[in-house]
Amino acid sequence: MILNILFFYLAAVTIISALFVVIKRNAVHSAIALLVTFVHVAGIFLLLNSEFLAAVQILVYAGAILVLIIFVIMYLNVTQRYRMFNRLKLIAFFVGVVLFAEVLYIITRTALKGQKGEFPIAKVLEMGNTEAIGKALFTDYLFPFEVASLILLVAMIGAIVLAKKEI
Amino acid sequence: MIPLHYYLILAAILFIIGMTGFLVRRNFLTLLMSIELMLNAVNINFVAFAHYMDSMTGRIYVFFIMTVAAAEAAIGLAILISAYRNLKTTFVDEMNSLKG
Fold first, then answer.
1. What b/e sequence results for A125-162 when a residue is b if at least 16 CB atoms lie within 10 Å of its CB, and e otherwise?
2. Which DSSP string corresponds to B71-84?
3. Helix (H) and strand (E) counts for chain A?
């Protein structure tokens, strides 16, 4: 019961603040609303027994990406008087509503089938969430992990090259 | 126990808010924030399925999606700074020198 109330609270705040991200004129207000969204999505991860991912969500999204965005907002000094939406707004709204109806139809009509994995909740709770993720990450997914570090290196070099005035 | 459908519907709503925001807004910064919203919706889906299917793979995928999101945000903001320096604007519909 308490979990249900918690879920509905987290979902409601996530959706309302996501709406604020889209409809706020001032980019700083959008960024603050995005911060609220990230924190509540971390709460949803906690409800789903993924404590490690909740911590990483707050560290990476709220800690790194959002600080980067706010830093760029301060650097660019975006003007406050402008047209918010482009010509597509009615079409885009219509497309969004139609797409949501389709997704809702499919979600509510399908049953979850398929093979269960080898990490039931009791086992995850017993060995610890971080340990389970770490074991999978450094045995089965070692090569993707190394590729991820390469992606970060490329992103770092690319950001420096793009943002530098003259190379 | 909360049904899986609730999480999927929440993720769908979040994704469509992000998608609509990406389509309608003119400011490049808000576009990047909308992309983050969409990636968060995908993350919720992955974690929900991993939880209900007793798997660890979905959680690992979320880890990699976060890596790609961080790289994408850094590159996107670098492109924004570069474009602002050359074109003096942050509105995507005014960046039309390629006549696309």
1. eeeebeebbeebbeeebeeeeeebeeeeeebeeebeeb
2. HHHHHHHHHHHHHH
3. 8, 0
Q: Between A2-23 and A27-47, two packed helices, what is the crossing angle to 10 degrees?
A: 160
Average pLDDT, chain B: 91
Question: At what angle are helices A66-76 and B28-52 packed, to 10 degrees?
Answer: 170
CATH assignment of the domain containing B58: 1.10.287.3510
**Is A148 in contact with B64 (Cβ distance < 8 A)?**
yes
Q: Give the pLDDT confidence of A64-88 residue by residue, as tens digits.
A: 999 999 999 888 876 677 787 888 8
- For the record, the structure tokens of A7 come out as 């879920």
Chain B residues in contact with A1 (beta carbon < 8 A)? none
Note the CATH number of domain A1-109.
1.20.120.1200
ipTM associated with this complex:
0.92
Domain count, chain B: 1
* CB-CB under 8 Å, A83 with B26: yes
